[in-house]
């Protein structure tokens, strides 16, 4: 497999580990970028990007990053907090009056960001096309009764997060949430990152497909069993209502929409660049960065049925939990995306890391491919 890009010789073992991913015949395409102290030390890509394996993954190939998108939305919300346009502990209904329905009048932005608001799913079955109807989705969430007493527990809002945080951003900024997020995070840093992708960029988007024959770890199997056997369970509703959440990634309408929980498009460079921008203070001041990265939720996740640990819109490291550690330092923060992509920062090593793949693995949190790359990176530092 021909590996494209560049790396500093000190990181040759990481380049070799990246190349070794392609020993698996199922591995289609991937990219890896690492910054240390704000300098890019590894920027690699390889494999194929299209459905049929004919088109090479190029330097400008981008992919759907799924939940790697969430911290971009959270940082935007925190910037608005810093400007006095939102408040972490004010009721969401102050900005979104309809949200006060069904016992949610006291729910705060902080609870939304830390997955504690009780809104990871919608009970009433929605039509498939609701996925692309912003008004329908925000109205359904405004009417939804929390699945638990807000603030008492946490459960990952896999996709509802995008409408909940996105609607708050939209209301205070008076423009599409993706426009605000990109303008406030990606544009100032010159990152090739999009929420609401222009049609003219579609030619360079990697086609995403699942790997076959791998059942994943215990957490993945547990979640799969529930979603297959319990149609009305919270976890099932979170991932299948509206239907088509999990099957839309390659569709034009999915790429075009502005859904800041799950449909950001970018490359490994844009993930590493974003986290470098958090480490160097470009995106948030120290006080707001502390809010982002301070533990807000820890324990059994009502949605994912595994132990999770969150700050405000980012996942925090759990060094002793196999599927929940980035693999570098205990202070690391970031976010995995469904199927294997991940971006994170490790402040102790001043590392910003981005890995993107178009071969989806079955894991619930961290993908072992990325974890192996990070363990190799650690030996190089």
Automatic annotation (TrEMBL):
It comes from the Bacteria. It comes from Pseudomonas cremoricolorata. Pfam families: Beta-lactamase. Residues 17-372 form the Beta-lactamase-related domain. This is Beta-lactamase.
